[in-house]
Amino acid sequence: MKRQAKIVTVFGSSRPREGDAHYAQAYALGAALAEKGLNVCSGGYGGVMEAVSRGAKEAGGRTLAVTAQFFKARANRWVDEEVRVKTWQARLFELIKRGRGYVACPGGTGTLVELAVVWEMLNKGAMSKKPLVVLGDFWQPVIERVREVELGHPSRFGESSEPLVRVASSPADAADYLAERFQAR
Hints:
Elements: E1 7-11, H1 21-35, E2 39-42, H2 48-58, E3 63-68, E4 81-85, H3 88-98, E5 101-104, H4 109-123, E6 132-135, H5 140-152, H6 158-161, E7 165-168, H7 171-184
Parallel strand pairs: 1-2, 1-5, 2-3, 3-4, 5-6, 6-7
Helix pairs in contact: 1-2, 1-7
């Protein structure tokens, strides 16, 4: 997959299975991103990662996975290209490096770390401005609490001057927003 491709890295739980609401939501996200001509990158395993890859693939899109030797497992069958790294940390930063935009779906502590690292890198200017979206209201209480603290303590860093995380109401809303942001560049 070309480095200049419009790649959206999607973070989310490995736990949802086909038939679960979060699986269906991630599948719809993958399809919506592919329909906008965007490539999907994920951690490559099951759950949300499988669903978003499957949705993109079945909609005619391209998929990329970054997996780690640490986890032993290989990428799910919906992945076109697998990038294999040694450690969990290397996987995290490769997922971030590959994305021109990001979507955090509902998830656990791993997804929270991924969301927090991207948000902090944007907040501190450690990477160029890229769109960061959370899907649905799952992460909204966390975002609101962080913004409450940030706005209460003025800073020269990003979140104090402008919101860096957008809450998307649906997979289509997330895909529309990302496609618009990529066109504006």
